[in-house]
Amino acid sequence: MKYLDEYRDEGLAQGIVAEIKRLVTKPWVLMEVCGGQTHSIVKYGIDRLLPEEIELVHGPGCPVCVTSLEMIDKALAIARRPDVIFCSFGDMLRVPGSETDLLILKSRGADVRVVYSPIDCLKIARANPDKKVVFFAIGFETTAPGNAMAVWQAHRQGIANFSVLVSHVLVPPAMASILQSPLNRVQGFLGPGHVCTVMGYREYEPIAARFRVPIVITGFEPIDILEGTLMTIRQLEAGKAEVENQYPRVVSRDGNRVAQDLVNKVFEVGDRKWRGVGSIPKSGYKLRYEMRAHDAERIFDVREIDTKEPEICISGLVLRGVKKPHDCPAFGTLCNPEHPLGATMVSAEGACAAYYAYGRHLQKPATPNSAAPALAKAS
Amino acid sequence: MCLAIPGKLTELSTDATGVRMGKANFGGIVKQVCLEYTPEVEMGDYVLVHVGFALSKVDEAEAARTYQALAQMQQLGELDTPDVPDAEPPLPEKAAA
Fold this sequence. Notes:
The structure holds two protein chains of two kinds. Chain A has three domains: 2-62 and 171-245, HypD, alpha/beta domain 1 (Rossmann fold), CATH 3.40.50; 65-170 and 255-299, HypD, alpha/beta domain 2 (Rossmann fold), CATH 3.40.50; 315-357, no CATH class. Chain A is 38% helix and 18% strand. Chain A is built from 17 helices and eleven strands. In chain A, the strands form two sheets. A six-stranded mixed sheet of chain A has the order 4-3-5-6-11-10, with helices on both faces. The two termini of chain A are 15 Å apart. In chain B, strands 1, 2, 3, 4, 5 and 6 form a six-stranded antiparallel sheet that branches. Chain B is mainly beta. Chain B starts with a strand and ends in a 5-residue tail after the last strand. Chain B is 13% helix and 37% strand. Chain B contains one helix and six strands; from the N terminus they run βββββαβ. At the A-B interface, helix 1, helix 3, helix 8, helix 9 and helix 11 of A face strand 3, strand 5 and helix 1 of B.
């Protein structure tokens, strides 16, 4: 307990905030990339602790949210089949497709199973040789090693009835895409700590240099986020644009090489569609040719699918940091966790769900830094 | 699934297919974890686990802090999904000398 107390230390937080206030001379827009950071910022009111010059915008780092509608619809088409056991992380079950979602299909009798780990699907495949077991392999670099291992073991052990529907996304190309957008306002990034546990942070160095933006690899606890913000502001005020590591107790520059090697053996980088954003070149993983026997898109012919997004939903703009959840006319009314219109309202890592969970739909929008002088207490 | 959950390794084994596995205790919930990506870990170590895969070792203090921060943020729900049982029991690994 004592360690957490240190991190909830009001005095420490206020000290960092005071230092940020002392340093800041002009307005800056920072983006936190990871959905866990977004959740923490909203829960603890970190954005409201900061001086009004600093705006935190929420990034695309919610894997459930950015999985394209087309992929969700493909998942639904596969899961409907009577010869399929469709396995997924629990977060995906309520993500709305064009017509329905996985939970509704399950309630209508489809064999949809929630698994904790992709490797569990191999056991399901072995126990059900007359069925085709499909895993919905989504996520950022954090889930890629797990998904790669499941495919690799199926390949190695000849488990022919196991395949994956791959919708993997990568953080650095998404950051580059945000920076290249004419709508971009982001001047510095809090980089995703746990993604960098796997990948290290070398690949962020060319982005910082090319776009002249500071990138500070940051943890997700409140003090981490305040420290990451301070380090970013210090760079911005000094005119620097470097990659720094606020989270060295967990992240190294190289990351986990063993995991990276297997990921590269199973996957290769390819173009990927992001929900609400569109296609981003070289922003995802797809299976290598050698792994094609485990490619669900090839096994089940689901290439042509017409999708339909609700017109009112602005989740794409929220994911790019252009809009905040409460800028959406449907936020908290037509769209809520019970009846989500967009994926950002489904996952705990989605900005809309975090804003809703912590009551921001009941509060006045627009003045982000006015209220809440203290770090919000954990409930 | 984006945030790793720290757990303490309580068992090391090799499953029937030759994959290095183990069990980790996450604040009282014991789950299977794959240890292929962390060849250096030993019994009693704390590891950060993403979707059932240990991806790095952390010290006890960091593990405690991270776990409690995740609990405060109600980000431990994925641990409630039960493991799929093994068809054949794994073989225990001999403790490191």
